[in-house]
Amino acid sequence: MKRRVAVLGATGIVGQRFVSLLGDHPWFELAIVAASEKSIGRKYCEAVRWVIEKPIPSSIADLELSPISNDIAKEEIDIVFTALPAEVAKDIEIELAKKGIIVISNASPMRLEPDIPLLNPEVNADHVEVIEYQRRVRRWSGAIVKVPNCTTAILTLSLKPIMDEFGIKRVIVSTMQALSGAGLTGVPSMLILDNLIPFIEGEEEKVESESRKILGYPTSDGITLNSNFVVSASCHRVMVLEGHTESVFVETVRDVDVEDLIKSMEEFKSNKIRGLGLPTAPEKPIVVRREIDRPQPRFDRMEGRGMSVVIGRIRKDYALNGVKYIVLGHNTLRGAAGTGVLIAELMVKKGLA
Amino acid sequence: MKRRVAVLGATGIVGQRFVSLLGDHPWFELAIVAASEKSIGRKYCEAVRWVIEKPIPSSIADLELSPISNDIAKEEIDIVFTALPAEVAKDIEIELAKKGIIVISNASPMRLEPDIPLLNPEVNADHVEVIEYQRRVRRWSGAIVKVPNCTTAILTLSLKPIMDEFGIKRVIVSTMQALSGAGLTGVPSMLILDNLIPFIEGEEEKVESESRKILGYPTSDGITLNSNFVVSASCHRVMVLEGHTESVFVETVRDVDVEDLIKSMEEFKSNKIRGLGLPTAPEKPIVVRREIDRPQPRFDRMEGRGMSVVIGRIRKDYALNGVKYIVLGHNTLRGAAGTGVLIAELMVKKGLA
Amino acid sequence: MKRRVAVLGATGIVGQRFVSLLGDHPWFELAIVAASEKSIGRKYCEAVRWVIEKPIPSSIADLELSPISNDIAKEEIDIVFTALPAEVAKDIEIELAKKGIIVISNASPMRLEPDIPLLNPEVNADHVEVIEYQRRVRRWSGAIVKVPNCTTAILTLSLKPIMDEFGIKRVIVSTMQALSGAGLTGVPSMLILDNLIPFIEGEEEKVESESRKILGYPTSDGITLNSNFVVSASCHRVMVLEGHTESVFVETVRDVDVEDLIKSMEEFKSNKIRGLGLPTAPEKPIVVRREIDRPQPRFDRMEGRGMSVVIGRIRKDYALNGVKYIVLGHNTLRGAAGTGVLIAELMVKKGLA
Amino acid sequence: MKRRVAVLGATGIVGQRFVSLLGDHPWFELAIVAASEKSIGRKYCEAVRWVIEKPIPSSIADLELSPISNDIAKEEIDIVFTALPAEVAKDIEIELAKKGIIVISNASPMRLEPDIPLLNPEVNADHVEVIEYQRRVRRWSGAIVKVPNCTTAILTLSLKPIMDEFGIKRVIVSTMQALSGAGLTGVPSMLILDNLIPFIEGEEEKVESESRKILGYPTSDGITLNSNFVVSASCHRVMVLEGHTESVFVETVRDVDVEDLIKSMEEFKSNKIRGLGLPTAPEKPIVVRREIDRPQPRFDRMEGRGMSVVIGRIRKDYALNGVKYIVLGHNTLRGAAGTGVLIAELMVKKGLA
């Protein structure tokens, strides 16, 4: 029987991606879509400014929009996906978790709290076990699990095989991020055409801290310990619709052989979720392109239905004694809603939802 | 009396910038404009696809285009500016130098040869003295002086006060470069709209090697010694008309105090050319912006008539133990023709042209 | 002695253009800049998101922003330029006119009222005489004069010589309008990149009605009579920063000879304002380009400092028995603030302000 | 059994679309892909710069590229699709037709010759009968059939129900055409960013003449007679990847009732091909959108897998006594390769190929 799910914040860009993925999902039935006040009571298809390449799932088009609130009963809904603004997310999510609902949240608050799993399943599916500790200390019958920041989700997937094979000391990352990351109306065309904006509020801090948590280790205490490398990020907005491109420089513990690294990346299947049969998991989480000028967002962002990251230009770095490369990922799929749905699938399979 | 000058490769983007700067120059008279075969004999204004914001200087519009060749007499022309493709530049430039002509070249060949000055005047005007050695060993009565690669010209100007104040160990730079850098037809719109291209042929190698030469030291031998820090670059093309933006991470020898660094940058006047009264020298070679989201190419590239670099977001870097920041410069002015003209002015003032 | 002037709505795109033109104007002193609530009391340079190619005039940068209101005394200010949203403009403008102030308004309300001059000076400077009737019936000591809709200002300037030489029966116009016409944040980049929007609210109605008023005739009653041709418009937004391009098809009364028409356009000096020495009037209100692919917004919008329209591709139209062509104009200069300032100059010269 | 087919000019944008459509076609087997000299002998996937949203069909990726020539045997290939430059197309196409091959050509030469069918199947599938006359007079055992110009294919599909219901006297069309229409490298980004180009070589003439042939009548002579309305076009390039948008003004014979017209368009199934079961035929050749701001290229171009045209903003036109509207179509699918494949399907079904 399908789990009944809800999406809070269903009309924004990430919300649209959730709706698109959940509208025909084999394991989930999207029963509630909620949006801000002005849309309540309207049909989803009439209230939304749909910008996704596929049409609105027909099962959702005529659904009436509900208010964003914690007024959702455990009997009615098993899992709530949230794509809410940071300032309203936290209280609602906590109330839902108290009621016994599983909350999978794309909002940034609480991502760094030690008892809140921050999951990028192919990288750290095992961190989901932190829920046990969370329930114990918070006395929740439900749970809150967080989806990482978009840039971080893409980055950490690329770093995982490097860490495993060669060890990481330092990471320098400079990004070229898509417009969709700022939401439907976030970047006015008058300010970005023939231009770029070398600043994204709060982004660098998120990348620097979340990366270490995701690549950290679960401990016997039930919480996770950060990995001990350091990350420095510089984040920039460019005129691309979807797909974050990241220029990454890594200082490694051991000398990198580029062909070995490519092999590790191409063979990276993630023993964390392999064999679980999660419908949203891409066959290859990492795709390596050997052309000199790839990955490129317009041509590569939909690799693995938007769930793979694409890596190219892998080369030795002589300044840092390590490796440098380009990684690209779809910021609202791999970097947001897609990873959210993948987490939900993982939890179902693990008997946690 | 004005020096008579020529521009070889006058119809390309860098050529147009040379024409625009030299058409009304107080010290120079642009007497010859040369272009590729199909344009020879046509009026400049009819053969060129002019893309510069100011009109073609009226003194040049009706000039007839000459062939690109070394068939220019010392009696006729004092200085030749070249904006030629790398594959044809070298031979022509050498022939002209033999004849006694001063060649100021934007082409990449020979930039790294130890007897060829590679000049970014505010940074290393003193390297012009290498000409003496060049003339001795090459037995030329003229000379060849090279304009740095565009990205490198912008980068090294930003690095100079850091090197002077705090010392540099390592530099990591990730760029977002303008379309004009690839020439008028270099980047087809079908391949860059809603996209970016994370590769620019030969660019990273140029940045990594030229930076060290420009920031190096003249020796008593008459040549220059490279500075001993290392540079690692990753270069990318984005959909911006003019203006290269660079995200720079610097490991310094001494601890950086951000306010001290800003002060050094704002006060940077370059004792190398200060007081020489060079017409193309910007009043402030470095402009620091304190807004959180600057510099931006569309709004800042024309700072100092395109000859200043604009630096923003200067902040400590904890991964590299140093500093990170954004620097922007106009790639065809500060990064090409503007610096070429500034070099010519320097040489006139020094009695070398 | 300079007239003291104010700009209401000084931080928007049209407001910025007014500030840029009035900051160094030989006849006017910009004494008051007013903006919406959140900016009141802040320095202009800090409150504005400046997007104009020239810097903020130094005389204005530190001016403190006032509230938008009718609380401006005749003793203090001679002329008020308004760049206000339609919904707030009307009441304020009427109150100011009652007080004896000359209001030059870029807002759409009242443009079609018979006693309100709608001025595109080179086309219908004589309509300014309608003020006499306006004052009589409204009992105002000041006056309200309207700047036309941007698309209409550009269109009517191109139509004027055709009407004079050949007579006009019908006009069909299809536009490609710049982003700036929708204001700083009007068009989100997510909705326009790799796209166009074939609708602009209220625009077609404005073009269809205002054109006939501007090209109409003053009568002995003191009001103006619409010209009797019909206009049909279709208006579309494209990804261009500044400059509206219009594809115009005109059915003429008499057969058009294309060369005669070009001559009329090139010689069009406007006997309406010729010889008045208005500083903002372009030397040539109409510039004809003979290249097959001009005018183009990026290259031609600043013609005549943004006050000329540029016409190209003038050719016979065999479907309508007339002529078709492309006209381009700068929508926030010729189509808004520039024409506003030109109107003010006209009124000063005519002794009306 | 599948027909064996070839694509000449397989690496350009239209060629890529042909390959994408034919790679998995139920009725056709793509056996030969031919390209210009520098690609001959290379694998298709290595020689092509693939820009289509779907991957290269796996059956084609490793196919070796052949030379473009008429050296194709009837025994080997039944149908040749050509996407060749106009200057080389004609001779090759004639030679192939002589040999008994069916040539479906996207090249412009011969489109207006009276014995060459110019087919937009839903509009004029019956014109295919002209082949009989063609074979008689040319003594060919094969045949040449032409795909219309892209803009014209889209326009005529929108005009067909208007002509049938209300009659057409005059058509004025002003276009905003996509970059792909100029080929992969046709429009340099430096010349179109923040710009548009109000001219497309030869395009207006094609629209004006081809439209009348397509909407004309087959006669008892075996050839077709042009419809007798007149068309005037103005064609412009804008920064959109795919999808031509056309602003159309139509003078009708009878008064248009807008709701009746919308009904005719929505019900337009084309009795010309209805019931033939052609795989590439869209279910609805015309889709009407009632939102005030549609169609838009990014969101609507893939309607009906790129084979439907999308019409919006249908409104009375009072200048022309008729109707005005916006029509959008995918220029390389409905406007080129898609219509080419649809023609081939029609011919198979009619027993002509």
How would you explain this protein's 3D organization?
4 copies of one chain form a homotetramer. Chain A is an alpha/beta fold and 353 residues long. Chain A has helices spanning 13-22, 44-47, 58-61, 86-98, 121-124, 130-138, 150-166, 189-192, 203-214, 258-267, 297-300, 333-349; strands at 3-8, 28-35, 66-67, 79-82, 102-105, 143-146, 168-176, 217-218, 224-225, 230-234, 244-252, 286-289, 309-317, 322-329. The first copy, chain A, folds into 2 domains: 3-149 and 337-349, Rossmann fold; 150-330, Dihydrodipicolinate Reductase, domain 2. Chain A has 12 helices and 14 strands. In chain A, strands 3-2-1-4-5-6 form a 6-stranded parallel beta sheet, with helices on both faces. Chain A has a 6-stranded mixed beta sheet with strand order 10-7-11-14-13-12. A two-stranded antiparallel ribbon of chain A has the order 8-9. In chain A, helix 1 (13-22) packs across helix 12. The longest helix of chain A has 17 residues, at 150-166. The radius of gyration of chain A is 19 Å and the shape is globular. The model of chain A has no long low-confidence stretch (mean pLDDT 96). Chains in contact: A-B, A-C, A-D, B-C, B-D, C-D. Chains B and C meet through loops of B and loops of C.
